[in-house]
Write a structure and sequence with these properties.
By secondary structure, the chain is mainly beta. It is built from one helix and five strands. It has one helix at residues 63-73; strands at 14-19, 24-29, 36-41, 44-49, 54-61.
């Protein structure tokens, strides 16, 4: 199995966007770019650049709902 680069570059800024209608948070390490989406379950998609062999972002579906559930569960 080949190694995959994950968060190796500390100098890359985090770019993010939240779609309120879709309740989806998009995180990109550096400027967003085309990538393969790998669904790892629980509404989380890892975006992977096959040429560079590195993770370039994450997509989290239902992030607002999750936060509301978390806050409601706290005493």
């Amino acid at each position: 199995m080949e190694a995959v680069k994950v968060f190796e570059r500390k100098d890359v800024p985090l770019d993010w966007d939240y779609d309120d209608d879709a309740d989806t948070l998009y995180l990109s390490f550096g400027k967003p770019k085309a990538a393969v989406g790998l669904d790892i379950g629980e509404g989380v998609v890892v975006r992977y650049d096959e040429q560079a062999k590195e993770v370039v972002g994450l997509t989290i579906v239902g992030v607002g709902r999750r936060l509301e559930e978390y806050v409601k569960s706290k005493p």
